[in-house]
């Protein structure tokens, strides 16, 4: 029996000590006055019974009732039912206040805060004070409390004839039964009757209607989020104006959480004085009156539920994890079915008659049933994850969280993870984990109904039926006797509280009440103590758990086939069939990604362990360890699938003998996994093992068989009994055992736990101590054993562990510091573990101390064992690693670092991995990386044995490295984390490597340092182009050898010296760029200087023009300058030669000026420049100052047809030009000088305009006045370039319309081609200046239309750099794409904006081509004049002039525009240490890409092939050749490079120049030649430039893994194909067919184009016939000529081919590619190259149209003009030497017979002077002569020195030779 009410209290209003108007609660009386022993009086009642504060009121309010909940220090809840009514506040009340003042003071001392909400002072008139009746109880019977207090109030108000004392006495003495489901009728002695029912099961909460009300107020979604928030320990605050609603809402939320109990702060009604409680850091559920809403605004982490408004506000910083799907959606839909049953019927055509919805009480139970089902589904099978650690004296139970999450498939689920880690769940385990206890509805549901719930999932009606059944049970629990519940309680009459003459509540007589209480107490003493009889049973475990949602794991859905592979592989390993196992291993490693395969592996390995030990040989051991590592690598630190747990016994079982007495176990090879350093894993393992042993402990004595050999291998009939069943049985028997027996069992259990703790200390030391204890890798790499104090989820303090570990560590006394830090960390880790598990499982403190002493010794012993193992394992023969393949090197290339063993990992290029194009995966490959002076090279073999013996090679020039970053990677096989390196190059190669474990970190670091050193040499002399093949160390300039005579090198030094002196006097302020070796000298040059020529600032025309002033050395300089490419080109274009310019032929509009020959005016320009004839050299100096970098406008090309010229310059300076000159610190900057400069610039541009033939007449007028005045006016600040980069079009609309003459006649074609050429108006401008938009702000157009400004928007260099970076990432990603397929590649390609930049360049170039073609000249004046200007100018010339589309012309174009005009190759390529910060900017590559785009559209217009462009793209960054090294001709001269190519050739030397290399290679192979070359005479190319017309260059994407990049031709030659020979065993000849993998082989090499194939065939046949092979070019030209002749007699003229040159532009751009495949019959299509070569024309046109054979004249041998007769003869060598075939040439002119090794040979091997010949006679064959030749084909030539024996191929040719030689002799 239990008391219904513990205390009755009367609380009244008392004035506040510190003020009027506010008050405080005062306890007037309380009964009983003494505290009950079992239940002290709760503090703070006077706060809680008026939560909003004690205040007087102006009117009498009706009485109110609510129940507050107080929680005491023992977490017991006290329910305070408060009934408040108002009485007039009379002065007489003060007396009462005075009486009780003492009481309130005591309270104040106890520290209960008494703050009241302030009110305005009360008006005069009657005021009313509150008075509260409070009933305090530990039972929650709200209705009974309401009735009882109501009765007391009624007795007082209605003045019933019952004494209040007896009613209160009866209330306090009323008892109700404890037993579940009983009922009791009580009466308080005032003619009342109440029936109290107790719920059937205590554990189920009683909710009345509170849950239904909560849903009604907040709605489904809000309540669900509050539910999740409460479970995941968030702070929840309810707001409402009604206290009873707050209490109900809190009670309802708690009822939903069942079976979990809320264990944090729970205050359904919080008084105003205690609002600061809301800022507590712990979770809570609190209700507060809505009046205080404002004060809750600043709470940042509190979820606020407004019951009156129906809203839930979640702060931004709070994340409430939702229920796992599909439970979230299922719960939501079931709740809506319960709350809104009409929803399902709303759409029916014939809705059924309205069914009555269930009552609120019933609905409440249905809602609770839904949540009960939810918990049953969430926690289904939880009992299978309980570990019973101790049974006696009290059960100790732990929950295996990881296993539960793993088996439910919810490892990633945030919600369940947080619930399981929460306090509520910990309470759930300790309360419900107990195996023998009374059960309730939840236990039944989770054990019996799970299968039904799963089956019903898809049937809403069945679910609803189940919910209703559960609701019935919940309802029955609360109302066991529904029929009898009849209450009879008097109530006051309506509005009784408003009566005037209400007397105040009387003071009660304490004695009377106390007497009634004492009487009852005396009666109770005689009664037996109330013990609640519990029906305890074994709690059912229910079915084993299943995943909440069956997810098929996609890729690794473990089919039986996969498991079969695993089983087979293991059986092969143990049967010793290693080759078979090796074949299966990759498949097994792939299969082990799946969970089932991992489980299968552990089961299979278990079968091969006998008596806890399995000794393997070395190979078997390696295989087993590899598979274990693969299994463990996917384990998280939680090991939720139990894989690590299953492997733990195995790693201590498998071993191999290293030497007698030394055994290595598998654990020493599988330590690198995070799971071993996770305390939670070890705890779960430990508890699992303890449970097994304790179960065995109780099973053994009951059976009669011998103790089982292996734990857990008890007889089958025991197998069914789980540990929980055993524990339950033991708990049932416990009370019946004798005291001694109980002690014995407790001791047995304790020692079982203790022995397991020792076992685990050993196990942990096995897996935590590394094999090589000198490497403290563990401390560095693991989840840090140092930080594990915090990692453990223990609630046990670590103080003991700390003190123990401290004391014993010092005793163990390790000498070696390094060892001790590993050992110390391990000892601390094990000690913490031991402390935690032993304290939790009740090990005695003596045992625990013993353990702490033992641990350091265990660790030390194990370290000593490991030392022997480590020593022996080093002696093992290493695993056969693949042999390192040495790469082939270029001549002069030296290895800097020999091969470091690495594996090359797959990156995002599908082709590299074989993925995108089929074929086995070539990567990862195992091999080595080599660093040479020129390249980084990887060579190796694929790791996948199915690929076969293919060699994988990948390399790039060191100079091309753009990014290097360290990575850590998991290796393919052993799955260990290893250091790696990722190198990315601008030749679109990526090396992603993992260093082998044999490569120490110092070797890897050395590799990085050396790579860096080679990538950024301090000086350009340190690059491979300079050091290759020479011995001097990089970085130190080679000592100059003394040359006799004024050699070119000395001359160039001289020239530079003078240039420096001259420059020293220039005072030019440079903005950005200072070339190296710049010296500022202010003093005038000394008098005795070597060279009299100087470019002075004064006007001295005499020193510049006449040739007399040039000394001989300078004439040499001039001649070498004249030999430069630009001069040759100027001559070709008819722009004049140096000699004609010096003699000033006035007829020519332009002249070649040597003004810059000392590089004094402009550092980055060539020595000779084309300027208008009328401009004096000395004026150029000042003109140059107006332009950036002094790059003033010079002519670089003239159209042969329209005579328009193309000029280039840097942009104008950022300042207004006048301002610029004023800022100059020239010696005497007079105003006149500034004026003259600007005037000269004006004249200069005027001279350009007037130099064009049709504008010469205008030279009198100053047509540029508009330009100059605008430019020099106040607006004339020509800003630097600002490019938008993203702007759609390069040319603004108004420019377009101006160009088209204000009205566009022909609209541009839709595909981006420009409008028809005829669109320009006849009166177009003479000169168009293309500049940056920013320069031309505020410039007025010229009214005379003589010139026109074309402002365009260009991109900046940094945008090119950024764009290239993105392009590189798109084409060579570092890792496989997240979403495979072309979409992500195309997206990243678009993001790079590379193609839109190419579109812009082509668009601007085509615009310029149009202008030039229409006869206007164009000046391109962009940025500094060396990047985008160069790109545009070069493209324009290429599109306009067919000569530049030949091999020779393209070379000239690059040499002239890029090299001579100073594109900064070294700076843009970051070739030296100085350029490292600026990074790589591919300006030249972008230009080559543009050429490639044009080449694709016009395949017949280019003599060179696409390969040529790729070759240049590769080598302009490779630093193999010196051609693309420095930033200007000036720098090249300074290093003595410029004329070396011409002058100094010492014997056969490696090519220093890329052009020389191209020439040499072209003689051997037609790889640079385009067979489709069939140019049209006057073709000006106008390519489409829209992005849709552009293609991504395959140079960026293709890769050949067979041999690396094919651009170093000597290295790229694959092995020769073996001829088809009969095999020695007489079998059929082997086929020469071979498989070509697109991702591996070079397709053009494996399957060359038809023509290359035929040329090769010819060469082979010639060799077979014994004839020296001809040059391919001669053969090609001969075939073409024959083809042309054949075409004519037919009458049809030309062969009807696709490639005839009359096809219009857009058709021609679709020419046939012969490269696509071996085409036999279409050979004729490409051979009709130039039908028009017969026609003649003048000047440059003829030059541009020369036949291809003359273009190749440089490939003819030098002596071709002196050959009278030539052919092959066999010649007998000198004494004892054999006969050899030689190529003989009879030369009448030089009167000699020369011989060569073969026809192509240029070096003569010997000469027979005909003057010495005495006779020519028939000869006889001697020994060793050719067998097949007729005897008459031999003849002898006798000279004065010796007799030469010859043999011709046949008799006629022998006769011919004899006749020719005779005739030469007779002619002489």
Draw up the topology in text.
Elements: E1 2-3, E2 7-16, E3 19-31, H1 45-48, E4 54-55, E5 64-71, E6 77-88, H2 93-109, E7 128-137, H3 142-158, H4 164-173, E8 175-176, E9 183-186, E10 194-197, H5 210-218, H6 220-231, E11 235-240, H7 243-257, E12 265-267, E13 284-289, E14 302-306, E15 311-313, H8 327-339, H9 360-378, E16 386-390, E17 396-399, H10 401-408, H11 414-421, H12 423-432, E18 436-437, H13 441-448, H14 450-456, H15 460-478, H16 510-526, E19 537-538, H17 560-575, H18 578-591, H19 595-607, E20 614-615, H20 618-633, H21 643-651, E21 654-659, E22 662-665, H22 679-699, H23 716-719, H24 723-733, H25 739-768, H26 777-781, H27 788-791, H28 799-812, H29 817-840, H30 845-875, E23 895-904, H31 910-913, E24 925-932, E25 935-942, E26 952-957, E27 961-970, E28 977-985, E29 989-995, H32 1001-1015, H33 1024-1027, H34 1048-1064, H35 1101-1104, H36 1112-1122, H37 1125-1132, H38 1138-1142, E30 1150-1153, E31 1169-1172, H39 1177-1184, E32 1194-1198, E33 1205-1209, H40 1217-1223, H41 1231-1250, H42 1265-1272, H43 1293-1299, E34 1327-1332, E35 1347-1352, H44 1357-1371, H45 1382-1392, ...
Helix pairs in contact: 3-4, 4-16, 5-7, 5-9, 8-9, 9-15, 17-18, 17-19, 18-20, 19-21, 22-24, 22-25, 25-29, 25-30, 28-29, 28-30, 29-30, 37-48, 39-41, 40-41, 44-45, 46-47, 46-50, 47-48, 47-50, 50-51
Structure write-up:
This protein has 1868 residues and is α+β, with helices and mostly antiparallel strands. The chain contains 62 helices and 43 strands. The strands form eleven sheets. A seven-stranded antiparallel sheet has the order 26-25-24-23-29-28-27. A seven-stranded antiparallel sheet has the order 40-39-38-37-43-42-41, covered by helices on one side. A hairpin with a 6-residue loop joins strand 27 (961-970) and strand 28. The longest helix has 31 residues, at 845-875. It is elongated, with a radius of gyration of 51 Å. The relative contact order is 0.04. About 20% of the residues have low confidence.
């Amino acid at each position: 029996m239990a008391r219904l009410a513990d205390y009755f209290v009367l609380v009244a209003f008392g004035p506040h000590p510190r003020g009027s108007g506010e008050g405080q609660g005062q306890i007037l009386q309380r009964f009983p006055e003494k505290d009950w022993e079992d239940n002290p009086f709760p503090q703070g009642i006077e706060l809680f019974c008026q939560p909003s504060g004690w205040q007087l009121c102006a009117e009498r309010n009706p009485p109110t009732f609510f129940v507050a909940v107080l929680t005491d220090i023992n977490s017991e809840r006290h329910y305070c039912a408060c009934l408040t009514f108002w009485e007039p506040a009379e002065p007489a009340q003060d007396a009462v206040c005075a009486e009780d003042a003492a009481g309130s003071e005591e309270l104040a001392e106890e520290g209960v805060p008494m703050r009241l909400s302030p009110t305005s002072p009360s008006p005069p008139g009657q005021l009313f004070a509150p008075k509260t009746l409070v009933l305090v109880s530990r039972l929650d019977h709200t209705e009974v409390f309401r009735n009882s207090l109501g009765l007391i109030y009624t007795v007082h108000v209605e003045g019933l004839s019952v004494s209040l004392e007896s009613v209160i006495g009866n209330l306090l003495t009323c008892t109700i039964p404890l037993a579940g489901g009983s009922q009791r009728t009580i009466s308080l002695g005032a003619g009342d009757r109440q029936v109290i029912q107790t719920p059937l099961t205590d554990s189920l909460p009683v909710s009345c209607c509170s849950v239904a009300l909560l849903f009604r107020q907040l709605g489904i979604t809000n309540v669900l989020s509050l539910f999740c928030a409460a479970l995941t320990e968030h702070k929840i605050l309810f707001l409402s104006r009604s206290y009873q609603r707050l209490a109900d809402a809190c009670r309802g939320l708690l009822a939903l959480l069942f079976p979990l109990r809320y264990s944090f702060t729970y205050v359904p009604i919080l008084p105003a004085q205690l609002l600061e409680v809301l800022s507590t850091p712990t979770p809570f559920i609190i209700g507060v009156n809505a009046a205080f809403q404002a004060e809750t605004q600043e709470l940042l982490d509190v979820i606020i539920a407004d019951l009156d408004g129906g809203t839930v506000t979640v702060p931004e910083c709070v994340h409430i994890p939702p229920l796992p799907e599909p439970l979230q959606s299922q719960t939501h839909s079931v709740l809506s079915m319960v709350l809104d049953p009409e929803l399902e019927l709303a759409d029916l055509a014939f809705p059924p008659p309205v069914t009555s919805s269930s009552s609120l009480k019933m609905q409440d139970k249905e809602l609770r049933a839904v949540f009960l089902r939810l918990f049953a589904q969430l926690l289904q099978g939880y009992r299978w994850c309980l570990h019973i650690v101790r049974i006696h004296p009290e059960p100790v139970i732990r929950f295996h969280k990881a296993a539960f999450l793993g088996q439910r498939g919810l490892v990633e689920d945030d919600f369940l993870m947080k619930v399981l880690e929460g306090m509520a769940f910990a309470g759930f385990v300790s309360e419900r984990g107990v195996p023998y206890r009374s059960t309730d509805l939840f236990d039944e549901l989770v054990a019996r109904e799970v299968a039904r719930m799963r089956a019903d999932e898809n049937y809403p009606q069945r679910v609803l039926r189940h919910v209703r059944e559960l609701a019935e049970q919940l309802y029955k629990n609360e109302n066991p006797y529904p029929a009898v519940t009849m209450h009879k309680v008097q109530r006051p009459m309506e509005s009784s509280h408003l009566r005037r003459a209400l007397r105040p509540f009387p003071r009660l007589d304490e004695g009377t009440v106390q007497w009634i209480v004492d009487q009852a107490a005396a009666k109770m003493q005689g009664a037996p103590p109330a013990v609640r009889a519990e029906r305890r049973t074994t709690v059912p475990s229910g079915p084993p758990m299943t995943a909440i949602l069956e997810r098929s794991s996609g890729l690794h859905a473990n089919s039986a086939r996969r498991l079969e592979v695993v089983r087979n592989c293991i059986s092969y390993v143990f049967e010793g069939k290693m080759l078979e196992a090796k074949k299966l291993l990759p498949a097994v490693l792939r299969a082990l990604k799946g969970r089932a395969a991992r489980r299968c592996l552990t089961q299979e390995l278990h079968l091969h362990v006998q008596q806890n030990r399995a000794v393997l040989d070395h190979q078997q051991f390696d295989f087993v360890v590899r598979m274990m590592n693969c299994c463990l690598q996917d384990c998280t630190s939680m090991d939720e699938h139990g894989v690590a747990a299953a492997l733990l016994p195995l790693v201590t079982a498998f071993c191999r003998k290293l030497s007698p007495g030394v055994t290595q176990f598998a654990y020493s090879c599988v330590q690198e996994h995070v799971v071993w350093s996770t305390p939670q894993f070890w705890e779960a393992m430990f508890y699992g093992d303890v449970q097994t042993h304790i179960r065995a402990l109780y099973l053994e004595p009951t059976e009669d068989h011998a103790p089982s050999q292996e734990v857990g291998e008890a007889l089958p009939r025991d197998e069914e009994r789980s540990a929980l069943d055993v524990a339950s049985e033991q708990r049932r028997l416990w009370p019946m055992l004798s005291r001694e027996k109980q002690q014995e069992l407790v001791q047995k259990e304790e020692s079982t736990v203790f022995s397991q703790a020792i076992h685990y200390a050993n196990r942990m030391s096995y897996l935590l101590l590394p094999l090589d204890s000198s490497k403290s890798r563990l401390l560095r790499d693991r989840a840090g054993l140092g930080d594990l104090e915090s990692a453990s989820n223990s609630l046990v303090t670590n103080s003991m562990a700390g003190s123990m570990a401290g004391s014993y560590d010092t005793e163990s006394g390790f000498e070696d510091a390094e060892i001790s830090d590993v050992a110390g960390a391990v000892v601390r880790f094990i000690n913490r573990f031991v402390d935690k598990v032993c304290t939790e499982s009740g090990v005695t403190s003596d045992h625990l101390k013993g353990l702490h002493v033992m641990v350091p010794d265990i660790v030390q012993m194990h370290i000593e064992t490991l030392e022997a193992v480590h020593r022996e394992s080093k002696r093992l023969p290493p695993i056969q690693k693949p042999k390192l393949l040495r790469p082939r090197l270029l001549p002069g290339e030296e290895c800097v670092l020999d091969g470091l063993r690495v594996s090359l990992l797959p990156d995002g290029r599908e082709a590299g991995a074989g993925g995108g194009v089929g074929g086995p995966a070539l990567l990862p490959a195992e091999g080595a990386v080599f660093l040479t002076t020129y390249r980084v090279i990887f060579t190796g073999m694929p790791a996948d044995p199915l690929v076969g013996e293919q060699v994988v090679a990948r390399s790039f020039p060191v100079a091309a490295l753009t990014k290097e970053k360290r990575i850590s990677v998991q290796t393919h096989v052993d799955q260990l984390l290893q250091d790696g390196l990722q190198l990315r190059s601008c030749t679109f190669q990526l090396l992603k490597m993992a260093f082998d474990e044999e490569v120490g970190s110092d070797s890897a670091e050395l590799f990085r340092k050396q790579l860096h050193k080679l990538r950024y040499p301090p000086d350009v002399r340190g690059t491979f182009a300079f050091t290759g093949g020479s011995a001097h160390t990089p970085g130190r300039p080679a000592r100059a050898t003394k040359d006799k005579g004024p050699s070119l090198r000395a001359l160039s030094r001289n020239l530079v010296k003078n240039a420096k002196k001259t420059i020293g006097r220039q005072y030019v302020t440079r903005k950005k760029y200072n070339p190296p070796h710049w010296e500022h000298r202010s003093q005038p040059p000394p008098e005795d200087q070597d060279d009299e020529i100087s470019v002075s600032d004064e006007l001295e025309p005499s020193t510049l023009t006449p040739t007399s002033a040039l000394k001989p050395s300078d004439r040499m300089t001039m001649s070498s300058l004249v030999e430069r490419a630009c001069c040759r080109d100027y001559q070709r274009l008819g722009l004049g030669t140096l000699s004609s310019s010096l003699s000033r032929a006035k007829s020519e509009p332009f002249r070649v000026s040597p003004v810059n020959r000392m590089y004094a005016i402009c550092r980055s320009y060539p020595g000779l420049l084309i300027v208008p004839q009328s401009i004096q050299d000395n004026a150029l100096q000042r003109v140059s100052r107006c332009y950036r970098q002094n790059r003033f406008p010079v002519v670089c090309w003239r159209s042969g047809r329209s005579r328009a010229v193309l000029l280039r310059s840097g942009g104008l300076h950022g300042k207004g030009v006048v301002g610029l000159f004023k800022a100059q610190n020239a010696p005497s900057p007079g105003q006149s000088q500034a004026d003259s400069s600007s005037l000269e610039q004006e004249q200069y541009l005027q001279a350009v305009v007037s130099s064009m033939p049709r504008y010469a007449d205008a030279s009198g007028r100053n047509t540029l006045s508009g330009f100059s005045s605008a430019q020099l006016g106040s607006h004339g600040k020509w800003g630097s370039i600002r490019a938008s980069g993203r702007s759609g079009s390069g040319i603004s609309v108004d420019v377009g319309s101006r160009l088209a003459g204000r009205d566009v006649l022909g609209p541009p074609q839709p595909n981006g081609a420009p409008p028809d050429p005829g669109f320009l108006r006849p009166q177009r401008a003479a000169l168009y200046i293309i500049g940056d938009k920013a320069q031309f702000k505020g410039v007025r157009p010229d009214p005379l239309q003589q010139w026109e400004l074309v402002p365009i928007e260009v991109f900046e260099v940094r945008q090119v750099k950024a764009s290239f970076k993105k392009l590189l990432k798109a084409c060579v990603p570092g890792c496989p794409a997240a979403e495979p397929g072309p979409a992500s590649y195309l997206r990243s390609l678009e993001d790079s904006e590379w193609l839109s930049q190419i579109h812009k360049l082509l668009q601007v170039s085509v615009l310029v081509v149009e202008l030039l073609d229409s006869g206007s000249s164009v000046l391109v004046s962009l940025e500094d004049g060396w990047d985008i200007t160069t790109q545009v100018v070069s493209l324009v010339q290429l599109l306009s002039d067919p000569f530049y589309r030949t091999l020779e012309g393209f070379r000239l174009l690059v040499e002239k525009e890029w090299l001579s005009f100073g594109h900064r190759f070294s700076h843009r390529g970051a070739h030296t240490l100085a350029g490292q910060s600026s990074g790589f900017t591919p300006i030249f590559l972008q230009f080559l890409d543009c050429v490639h785009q044009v080449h694709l559209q016009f395949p017949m217009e280019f003599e060179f092939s696409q390969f040529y462009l790729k070759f240049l793209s590769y080598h302009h960054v490779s630093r193999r050749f010196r051609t693309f090294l420095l930033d200007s001709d000036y720098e090249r001269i300074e290093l003595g490079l410029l004329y070396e190519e011409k002058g100094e050739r010492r014997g056969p030397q490696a090519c220093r120049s890329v052009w020389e290399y191209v020439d040499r290679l072209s003689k051997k192979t037609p790889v640079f030649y385009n067979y489709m070359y069939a140019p049209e005479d006057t073709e000006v190319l106008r390519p489409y430039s829209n992005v849709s017309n552009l293609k991504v260059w395959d140079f960026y994407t293709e890769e050949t893994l067979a041999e690396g990049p094919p651009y170093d031709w000597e290295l790229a030659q694959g092995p020769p194909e073996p001829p088809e020979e009969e095999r020695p065993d007489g079998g059929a000849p082997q086929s020469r067919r071979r498989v070509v993998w697109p991702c591996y082989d070079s397709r053009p090499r494996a399957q060359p184009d038809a023509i290359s194939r035929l040329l090769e065939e010819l060469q082979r046949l010639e060799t077979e016939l014994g004839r020296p092979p001809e040059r391919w070019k001669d053969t090609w030209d001969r075939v073409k000529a024959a083809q042309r002749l054949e075409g004519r007699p037919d009458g049809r003229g030309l062969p009807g081919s696709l490639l005839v040159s009359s096809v219009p532009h857009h058709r021609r751009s679709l020419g046939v590619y012969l490269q696509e495949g071996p085409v036999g019959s279409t050979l004729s299509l490409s051979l009709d190259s130039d039908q028009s070569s017969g026609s003649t024309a003048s000047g440059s046109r003829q030059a541009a149209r020369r036949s291809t054979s003359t273009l190749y004249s440089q490939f003819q041998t030098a002596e071709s003009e002196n050959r009278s007769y030539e052919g092959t003869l066999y010649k007998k060598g000198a004494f004892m030497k054999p006969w050899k075939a030689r190529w003989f040439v009879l030369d009448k002119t030089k009167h000699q017979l020369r011989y060569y090794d073969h026809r192509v040979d240029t070096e003569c091997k010997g000469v027979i002077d005909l003057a010495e010949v005495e006779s020519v006679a028939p000869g006889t064959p001697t020994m060793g002569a050719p067998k097949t030749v007729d005897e008459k084909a031999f003849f002898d030539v006798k000279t004065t020195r010796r007799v030469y024996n010859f043999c011709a191929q046949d008799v006629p040719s022998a006769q011919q030779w004899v006749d020719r030689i005779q005739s030469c002799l007779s002619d002489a």
